[in-house]
Amino acid sequence: MTSQVKESQSSDQKTRRPSRIIVAGLCIGIVVAGLLWRKTAWINFCQWQAERNLQSRDAEQALSWISQAYQADTQNPETLLILARAYRRAHEVEPAIKTLKQLFKVAGPSEELHREQWLVEAQVGDVSNLEKHLADMLIDPKGNAQDICETFVNSCVLNYRFHDAMRIIEVWQADFPNDPLPHYYLGRILEHQGDWEKAAREFSTALEVSPGHIPSAYNLARVNLSHNQVDAALDNYRLCTKYQKEHAAALVGIARCLRMKQDSQAARATLKTAQQVPESQRLKDFRAVGDPAYVARNAILLELGQLELTSGNYKAAVAYLEDAIEQNPKDRKARLALADAYRGSGELEKAEQQIQIVQKTQQAIKRLDECFDLLQKDLENADLRAEIGQIFLEHISENQGVVWLKNALYYDPRHQRARQALEEYYAKQRSSSHN
Questions:
Q1: How many domains does the structure of the chain reveal?
Q2: Residue finishing a domain among 70, 105, 121
């Protein structure tokens, strides 16, 4: 009897052991599934937030959200695509290209990858692939119609293809009447063409559509200053700081207006505030309102030098302006101001040296204006585009010069002058990096 009981207990234990293992396995499975679901849900949420911020043109917030999704899973194709797009929208082209290469390794070729690749190319001025596929992309924009329009228009402006830009702006404006950017870009084009009055109207219209659109307020202020409307310019620069308190580009504009109103003390205080903005943020602020990096590099130093020059403090002006030229050797405004400062401090020989450099630059710019006028009559002229590129490269901006030279090669892949200029430029860059 006892042996039968023992056998029965032993049999029950054997039966219970597998059932406990099964229950434990199920529990672990539920926990793992829960963790995986939680991770997937978090990634989806971060992707959604990033997409939402991209739609509202807040690339920095989009990068913040999508970076968290990337940390959770570095191989998620959707995350990589949004990350590349966020980098591009934040003007960080190299990380965008790197992310697209990673996406290709993870998921292979796809229509979404190709679209983003064409947009990245256009971001740096090569609009050829985007232009080939533009009609199809606008027919089925996949929720990114405004982004596609903006990238194409901006690339056309970079390449001085204003007619093509205005053609897309017309469609963009009709489909998105509450978007300030079509008016903003049209204002920029009209400003390039010297039609200041119409440019001002477009910037004003953009502000009516979106009162907090900082680029439109900033560029309207610049137009105001070109007509010596200092009070109006000051109001528009201050409108920028209403929506972004320490906007570096706007602060420099405010200081310029205050200097012109002979309020040196307030101008100095404003420039001091601008100097406290981190350099990376300063570059972003200038870029966001359409000013190139070479302007951002020395804008504060230049305005400080102009302020001291106006106040008759020639030695202080020389110090600031020499630093400004060191930051941007191609800045002829800084060189003219430095020549005046040298004269004021009695250094006439140095002043003459600066004047000679400025005169040479002005001759080149006169030729540049002639090339632009000729280009309007023959937009596919590679010779003109190569000449424009060389003038930019030597006298104004190396980055813009490279864009124009590459653009000449787009119209004529064998263009000798453009190829040689680029080869010499890149050889010089390699030599500088080795030294």
A1: 2
A2: 121
Query: Does 139 fall in a domain?
Result: no
CB 166 within 8 A of CB 197: no
CATH number of the domain that 57 lies in? 1.25.40.10
The domain boundary, picked from 121, 150, 174, lies at 121
- Express each pLDDT in 185-224 by its tens digit: 999 999 988 899 999 999 999 999 999 999 999 999 999 9
Structural contact between residues 307 and 341, judged by C-beta atoms closer than 8 angstroms:
no
Residue entry with tokens 């002058």:
417
Residue 258 belongs to a domain: no
For 306, what's the count of Cα atoms within 13 Å in the CB-facing half-sphere?
Answer: 21
Class of residue 167 by CB neighbours under 10 A (exposed 0-12, middle 13-18, buried 19+) = middle
| 192 inside domain | no
145's tokens: 């119609």
pLDDT digits (tens, 9 = 90+) for 346-382: 999 999 999 999 999 999 999 999 998 898 888 889 9
Task: State how far the alpha carbon of 385 is from the alpha carbons of 165, 264, 374, 396, in Å.
Answer: 18, 43, 10, 15
415: containing domain:
380-435
Angle ∠(377,292,298) on CA atoms, nearest 5 = 135
Residue 31 has pLDDT above 60, yes or no: no
Contacts by 253-256, CB closer than 8 A, 24 or more apart:
253/218, 253/221, 253/222, 253/225, 255/303, 255/307, 256/225, 256/303, 256/306
Q: Give the mean model confidence (pLDDT) for residues 255-277.
A: 97
